[in-house]
Amino acid sequence: MAAPLPGGASSLVETYNDWSVVCQAAGDVTACVVRQVQSNSQTNQHLLTIEIARDGTDKLTGVLLLPLGLSLAQGAQLKIGETTIGGMRVFSTCIQQGCLAPFDITDETLAELRAGKTLDVTVSAANPV
Q: Could you tell me the CATH number of the domain that includes residue 82?
């Protein structure tokens, strides 16, 4: 639970370089998410959304939203700078907007995210049948 939003606002969006912080207030509870969205600049096709937020236990978690048509069995791999973060991220489900791969954020992962200059996400395309 975050502090109330300024001026009694029900939502707040702030942008920091490629990242946005989006907060929503509902009653006395404020929930915030840090988000980055990447698209193909020529086709405007969605490539990646990454969101980081606190879960109900105040633990940081993340989720990747990647396009449909990926090899679900291959999952997704995260790399910050030259450091591979954890193992393969398994896709939990696919929705109309794409496929979701949730991941936990450890203290080590958070330190890498803060210090890193690049975040690479590696996935494989599905083989058409």
A: 2.60.40.1880
What is the 3 state secondary structure string of the chain? CCCCCHHHCCEEEEEECCEEEEEEEECCEEEEEEEEEEECCCCCCEEEEEEEEECCCCCEEEEEEECCCECHHHCEEEEECCEEEEEEECCCEEECCEEEEEEECCHHHHHHHHHCCCEEEECCECCCC
Give the pTM: 0.82
User: What is the pLDDT at residue 55?
Assistant: 82
pLDDT the model gives residue 66: 95
**Mean pLDDT (whole number) for 85-92:** 84
Whether 23 is in a domain gets the answer no
Domain count, the chain: 1
Q: Is the pLDDT of residue 27 over 70?
A: yes
